[in-house]
Amino acid sequence: MARAAAGRERLGSGIRWAWYGLALFVIVFDQISKYWIQIHFFETERFNLLPILDVILVYNEGAAWSFLSDAGGWQRWLFTAISAVVSLVLIGWIHVADQSQKLLLWSLGFILGGAVGNLIDRVVQGKVTDFVLFYYESWSFPAFNVADSAITIGAILMLVDAFYSSENTGAARDGDHDNDKGEQ
């Protein structure tokens, strides 16, 4: 019996490394794509891919949607610290998460990879490289990158997981409550 438990623990540990592997894949893909853009484009150069999609090289010294981008430089260290702390929390969360919560673990892997991808930019360059631009006529969504996309995908997966987890927990709780009524 102890041998079976040890085998399950090793299996769980191996599966856990898969989520760190997902994060590493996101980090590598993000950094390669940013490197490629930086060597093939000059800043603000645009290349049209579709009527609503351009590739453009821009830099963001702030946070999402250039929040605090013109704050004078101190924001680099604030966002670097926040990214580092969030990354450490995500690493710990993946480590202790129930390995049967696949959707949650996918979300954590994507968010961790995105957070570290942008953290690398902040540490190395002091700003984040963005290059995907969606627009329609005079409206445009702020430019973003692979790391931002991974964080968004992870956040969506986390919301779906939370919705289905709470729905299942609520259904189980309601079922337990109904059983309590029947026993009275």
Largest sheet, strands/sense/barrel = 4 strands, antiparallel
What is the beta-strand fraction?
5-15%
Q: Fraction of residues in helices?
A: 55-70%
Radius of gyration: 21 Å
> How do the helices and strands follow one another from N- to C-terminus?
HEEHHEEH
Characterization of the model:
It is a single chain. This protein has helices spanning 2-40, 74-96, 102-125, 146-183; strands at residues 46-50, 53-60, 128-136, 139-140. A four-stranded antiparallel β-sheet has the order 1-2-3-4. Residues 4-11 have low confidence and may be disordered. Helix content is 67%, strand content 13%. With 184 residues, the protein is of the alpha+beta class. The protein has one domain (2-155). Helix 1 (2-40) crosses helix 3 (102-125). Strand 1 (46-50) and strand 2 (53-60) form a beta hairpin. The protein is built from four helices and four strands, in the order H-E-E-H-H-E-E-H.
Topology:
Elements lengths: L1 H39 L5 E5 L2 E8 L13 H23 L5 H24 L2 E9 L2 E2 L5 H38 L1
Antiparallel strand pairs: 1-2, 2-3, 3-4
Helix pairs in contact: 1-3, 2-3, 3-4
